[in-house]
Write a structure and sequence with these properties.
The chain has 14 helices and 10 strands. The protein is of the alpha/beta class and 366 residues long. It binds ligand F0G.
Length: 366
């Protein structure tokens, strides 16, 4: 490489970095926005909370190109869709899948239809889909209804469905597990995740298993998923007809990858648990104020779940039984700016004061 040639290695995205593990070939056109390679941050405060020399890491997926982990799967799903000459993408979404699909469709130069539950999408995510130029259809129903409609429309071949029922999405999302193992030098002992449509937990488990199978790790983590208390079908083992939670991204009553996630949790000797909206918002605030990581409410479910597993003996998974020196990963899945209304009540009175140091000093002292 000459000195004047740009070195875009770090911006090449997950397909370039993990090609051998992904369903792509030389003839697949790569549609990437430079996703992946997200920070894995050691948290001294969370580590101290567990004690016994355990180390806790936060995998911050909110810094992906459209602000969520969905981009890892979308680069693969859209690349494969373009390879198959698909002219339009379609997805149902609680907001992040649609933002990601819209962005990757724009990058690919194809159109994108997003089907959303009317009035249930966080403002920032809806604006993303608008900005990227997707065709947006709001339906009178919830996410589960939207996904049902999308599945039916996707049956005629005009559209590629880019929800996580598309195996290319899961393939791309497993790269998060690869990155964690590559950075730690081995698999962690516990992997904590928010659990919604259940594709991501399924994908992480596939990634950990695949790396283990190729001897890049010596062990497998226990997979622990956290659902919102009002939207916890896997925890209760029954469909929730009217899921309700402030964490709109995981407001799902009938997850598409239910069986796969359940199998991953069981095989890995993990657990599924619930966290309340109050615990979610407390965890969101804690993470922003103590670690400088601002996540959307659904993402904070893994942190809320972490606290619950530390504190309570009635949780589905207690950290008391984990061996000393365990490594724990809490994945946070989406950026806080996507859902500004969730923190709006923390915004204090911003009535202006005079533009001089005295007035500002007085205001600070309040
Ligand atoms: N966290 C965020 C920020 C999400 O957007 C989602 C899912 C999840 C966690 C749960 O992941 O569904 O794989 O179990 N969002 C989907 C969407 C459903 O449409 O954006 P999962």
């Amino acid at each position: 490489m000459s000195i004047n040639e740009p070195n875009l290695e770090q911006s090449r995205g997950v397909i370039a970095r993990y090609r051998a593990f992904l369903p792509v070939s030389e003839s697949t056109p790569i549609i990437s926005l430079g996703e992946g390679n997200t920070p894995l941050l050691s948290s001294a405060r969370l580590s101290k909370k567990v004690g016994r020399d355990c180390e806790v890491f936060i995998k911050n997926e909110g810094v992906n190109p459209t602000g969520s982990f969905k981009d890892r799967g979308m680069t693969v799903a859209v690349s494969k869709a373009v390879e198959r000459n698909t002219r339009a993408l379609i997805c149902a979404s609680t907001g992040n899948t649609s933002a990601s699909a819209a962005a990757y469709a724009a990058r690919a130069g194809i159109s994108c239809v997003v089907v959303l539950p009317a009035g249930k999408i966080a403002r920032g995510k809806l604006l993303q889909a608008v900005a990227y130029g997707a065709k947006i259809v709001a339906i009178d129903g919830n996410f589960d209804d939207a996904l049902r409609v999308v599945r039916e429309i996707g049956e005629d071949n005009d559209f590629a469905i880019v929800n996580s029922i598309n195996p290319d999405r899961i393939a791309g999302q497993k790269t998060a597990a690869f990155e964690i193992v590559d950075l730690l030098g081995d698999a962690p002992d516990l992997q904590l995740l928010p659990l919604g449509n259940a594709g991501n937990l399924t994908a992480y488990w596939a990634g950990y298993r695949e790396y283990h199978g190729s001897r890049r790790s010596t062990k497998l983590p226990a997979m622990i998923g956290f659902q919102a208390a009002g939207a916890a079908p896997i925890f209760h083992n029954r469909v929730v007809e009217k899921p309700e939670t402030i964490a709109s991204a995981i407001r799902i009553g009938n997850p598409a990858s239910w069986k796969q996630a359940r199998a991953a949790i069981d095989e890995s000797h993990g657990a599924v648990d619930v966290v309340t909206d109050e615990e979610i918002l407390d965890a969101q605030r804690w993470l922003a104020r103590n670690e400088g990581i601002f996540v959307e409410p659904a993402s904070a479910a893994s942190i809320a779940g972490f606290f619950k597993s530390c504190d309570s003996k009635d949780g589905a998974y207690s950290f008391e039984k984990i061996p000393p020196g365990s490594r724990i990963i809490c994945t946070v899945t989406g950026h806080g700016l996507k859902d500004p209304d969730a923190v709006a009540k923390d915004v204090v009175d911003l009535a202006p004061v005079a533009a001089n140091p005295e007035a500002v000093r007085r205001a600070i002292a309040l």
